Amino acid sequence: MNGSLVLRLLLLFLLASLPISVAARVAAQEEGGGGASALGVTVGKLQTEEQKRGDAIFHKNCHLCHIATGQKRSLKINADELVGLFKRPNINEQGVRQLIQTGIPKRMPSFQYNFTPAEVDDLIAYLKIR
Q1: CATH number at residue 79
Q2: Beta-carbon neighbour count of residue 79 at 10 Å?
Q3: Closest Cα to residue 19, out of 63, 85, 70, 72?
Q4: What is the domain count for the chain?
Q5: Residue 25 and which of 31, 32, 51, 71 are 20 to 30 A apart at CA?
């Protein structure tokens, strides 16, 4: 492997291993109205247990691609942040569920065998307020 590829892989590994601050999430949720998620993206207030579980699932499995950083842009990882996803035209729960389960060839892995149907429900509940 060339040095640039090794450096990029190391950087991606380091990004994946960053701890998610529970204190930041709790502090944001204690403020009125919306708040910031654990990684600083403004979201609606997590009100239900389903939304809270979905937030945890998102930050465990999806944040590497779906929360933009300068490092990700330099590595050409340009996935959508999914903020306001359900406010977009032609986006519905069934379509999002299908994308999560089947993925997008060469762009997003399938999570068909990673998440239970209840976990997909939780993730969708979270994405609706993101």
Answers
A1: 1.10.760.10
A2: 15
A3: 63
A4: 1
A5: 71
